[in-house]
């Protein structure tokens, strides 16, 4: 298994990223990012909404790892959608991250509606032309939102759609549409926020491979070809969550996990909105 995925713009994204949603502002997030970089992560997924972009910036700067070796994703929050507002929000994120560029900037959700989605995506393209952003995409987009965007024939196609995905929420429709259109899927909350780690099917498979439930879930995402974004602020769990390259889930076990699907969303679900 290669440790990067290649996007439709030619850039390579590390397959596992540290998620920092609900990682508290300040030293907690800074420590999490520092431990992750020490453990070999080269990808951090933050958002303006999370209020910890500055902490991600501090930890990355302190690490001494060259900026170009680390992938930073951040997101344009709903209330910042619109052409000018998106440009302004991107500048604020750049400042907080203490960086000259953002690797991947995505629209956090389709909730603001059709007109603002279009304007905001136009702004993302402008940011790429200006060299401030390298890759662009969307998040929480359902198939209809993706179709709407592709029908506008943007000069720069979305490289990514980041959605909640795990065996209890497989989102086959979105994943299939993305794969047909050369859009990489990123899985957030790949651990279903820890709510299903005791699931008997999962536990049985974990025991078979001598791995933790979390490791099996992360590996499940990777084997589906998803960029996988486990969140943790705990040093041991951060280390554990990237120790997933020494085993492979067999086909039958993948199918058993796939069959757990019950459309379980652990937070919001904008993929079905207008
Ligand atoms: P913590 O941050 O204290 O480690 P998701 O990525 O699906 O959103 O899940 C995040 C939740 O899962 C958090 O509560 C996180 O807690 C917990 N978590 C992260 N890694 C592991 C792990 N390896 N084992 C058990 N729980 C984990």
TrEMBL record:
Annotated active site: 50
Residues with site note (Lowers pKa of active site Tyr): 75
Swiss-Prot/TrEMBL keywords: Coiled coil, Oxidoreductase
Record domain NADP-dependent oxidoreductase: where: 29-262
Binding site for substrate: 108
One GO MF term attached to the UniProt entry: oxidoreductase activity
Superkingdom of the organism of origin: Eukaryota
UniProt-listed Pfam families: Aldo_ket_red
Coiled-coil blocks: 80-107
Family as reported in the entry's similarity comment: Belongs to the aldo/keto reductase family.
Name of the protein this chain belongs to: Aldo/keto reductase
UniProt source species: Rhizophagus clarus
């Amino acid at each position: 298994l290669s440790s990067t995925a290649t996007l439709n713009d030619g850039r390579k994204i590390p397959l596992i990223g540290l998620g920092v949603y609900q990682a508290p502002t300040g030293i907690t997030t800074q420590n999490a990012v520092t431990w992750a970089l020490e453990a070999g992560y080269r990808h951090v997924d933050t958002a303006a909404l999370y209020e910890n972009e500055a902490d991600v910036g501090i930890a990355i700067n302190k690490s001494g790892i060259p900026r170009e070796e680390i992938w930073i994703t951040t997101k344009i929050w709903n209330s910042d959608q619109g052409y000018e507002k998106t440009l302004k929000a991107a500048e604020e994120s750049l400042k907080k991250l203490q960086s000259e560029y953002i690797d991947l900037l995505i629209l956090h959700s389709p909730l603001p509606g059709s007109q603002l989605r279009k304007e905001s995506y136009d702004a993302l393209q402008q940011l790429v032309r200006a060299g401030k952003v390298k890759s662009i995409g969307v998040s929480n987009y359902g198939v209809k939102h993706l179709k709407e965007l592709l029908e506008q024939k943007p000069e720069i196609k979305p490289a990514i759609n980041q959605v909640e995905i795990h065996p209890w929420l497989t989102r086959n429709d979105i994943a299939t549409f993305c794969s047909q259109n050369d859009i990489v899927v990123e899985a957030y909350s790949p651990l279903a926020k820890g709510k299903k780690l005791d699931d008997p099917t999962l536990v049985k498979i974990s025991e078979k491979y001598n791995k933790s439930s979390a490791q099996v879930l992360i590996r499940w995402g990777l084997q589906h070809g998803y960029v996988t974004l486990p969140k943790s602020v705990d040093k041991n769990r951060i280390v554990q969550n990237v120790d997933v390259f020494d085993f492979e889930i067999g086909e039958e076990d993948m199918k058993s996990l796939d069959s757990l699907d019950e459309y379980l969303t652990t937070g919001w679900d904008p993929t079905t909105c207008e």
